[in-house]
Design a protein that fits this description.
The chain has eleven helices and eight strands. The chain has 275 residues and is α/β, with parallel strands linked by helices. Strand 2 (33-40), helix 2 and strand 3 (56-60) form a beta-alpha-beta unit. The relative contact order is 0.13. The model is unreliable at 263-275 (pLDDT under 50).
Length: 275
């Protein structure tokens, strides 16, 4: 019997459409990957779509990503293990690239490089996402790529996974910089918020996740972003003045909305989210 090269855990909450596109590339070679879809609190055909594609399926009435990740992890058969968001796309070739990276000495965790799919996004939202991606790219590593892979030793740092909102942030903070890697030969296709309003709503969740991680003693170790980082992008001509202006305008709107909910917020207090 040939053992799979990697176990892949996919927590999925009402993701039938996304899985119909994302699972076939991972299951094209029978037995190469052990793909486990954890349908949690679903009201659509998520489980049925996953079964038809050839994945192993676990179902739970309890919604929640962290719970689904724990269930899927307990059902895994091999290491390394890849934890994959249901709404991102990754190819088999990218998974193999992650496996090669994880086999190198000292690497305990690695993640692909996210590629933004901005089709259907509004004009301002596209500018905001492009600038944000440039700002966080140097230190993103495991967070924000929609997937991260753990070796057996790395798994012991991250699991048992608590009930955190940002599991990738928890994973990111579990390793020293030399132990984790962003693998340029591997990519995921990530679809960010399509509108400014949706982006602002998502920022609420990101901030909540960051605060929770800090309370659990695993804050992001990297420095926070500031106006100087944005100005540097413009000076290097990596972002134009209009792009930077849109980003700053939306950021200030985010800060104003935050202030009405939680009191005064300084520039550096939340911009440090690396997601």
């Amino acid at each position: 019997m040939i053992l799979p090269k990697v176990s892949i855990v996919v927590p999925a909450h009402n993701e039938a459409t996304s899985l119909a596109a994302g699972l076939p590339p991972l299951l094209a070679v029978p037995g190469e990957f052990d793909v486990i879809v954890v349908a949690n609190g679903c009201a659509d055909g998520t489980a049925e779509v996953a079964r038809r594609a050839g994945a192993r399926v676990l179902e739970t009435a309890r919604p929640g990503k962290a719970h689904a990740l724990r269930l899927g992890d307990a059902a895994c058969t091999v290491f390394p293990r890849l934890y994959l968001d249901a709404d991102v796309l990754i190819t088999a070739a990218s998974v193999r690239a992650l496996l090669r990276a994880a086999a190198e000495p000292g690497v305990l965790a690695c993640a692909p490089r996210p590629v933004l799919d901005l089709s259907g996004a509004g004009r301002v939202a596209r500018r905001v996402h492009r600038v944000h991606d440039l700002l966080i790219a140097p230190t993103r590593v495991l967070a924000g790529a929609g997937a991260y892979l753990l070796t057996e030793e790395g798994h012991g740092r991250v699991f048992p996974l608590p009930d955190v909102l940002a599991d990738d942030g928890w994973a990111q903070a579990s390793f020293a910089p030399h132990e984790r890697r962003s693998e340029p030969a591997a990519t995921t296709v990530v679809r960010p918020a399509r509108t400014v309003g949706a982006h602002l709503r998502r920022r609420i969740r990101v901030r909540s996740g960051n605060r929770q991680l800090a309370e659990l003693g695993r804050p992001a170790p990297e420095g926070r972003l500031g106006l100087g980082d944005l100005a540097a992008l413009v000076r290097r001509r990596e972002a134009g003045p209009v792009d930077a202006g849109c980003y700053l305008g939306v950021l200030l709107l985010d800060r104003a909305l935050t202030a009405t909910r939680r009191g005064p917020v300084s520039w550096g207090s939340d911009t440090g989210s690396r997601r």
